[in-house]
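Sample intake sheet
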Amino acid sequence: MPSRTSKRLYFRGISKDITEDHLFKYLSRYGQISEVKMLSNYAFVQFESEKEALLVLETYKDQPLLGCRVVVEFAHPLRKDVTSFSSNSSTQSRPAHRVVYARHPVVVLGLPKDIRWQELKDFGRSSGMLVAFCDLDKIQEGRGFIEFFSREDARLAVTTLNGHTRFRTRFP
């Protein structure tokens, strides 16, 4: 667990039946929430203040959340929120320029049960496009996600790979 407080909490052990909306409505009683992100059996919840996040952490570290025994911790900071320091930094502060990269996801269906994410990423690369990220769906077997850096790359990958016999995949 990170040693300092944060506005962002990590919840592990969330039931598959709980939706982002359900979690948002339930935790909103503790304060303003700016983001809820659900992934498989865990979630990240970003509060507007550290005080609100601390209250939720203290409340649910020893009791069930929505009927589930969960692990609640302060989340590690997002990479985009961590400032990098150089050894030769000057005393003048420079304005931080934040570059936002959008990723364009593609859903892949019909994957074999024994496929690994590395094989799925190689499959995405076989389209000739750069793959930003990929993962296998932990809830629905035979489904995976490949994210590309541009909409055009995603479109070309779908055109190139749809119905490919390597895994007999299809794109919805």
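Comment: The CA atoms of residues 88 and 94 lie 13 Å apart. The chain is about 25% helix and 25% strand.
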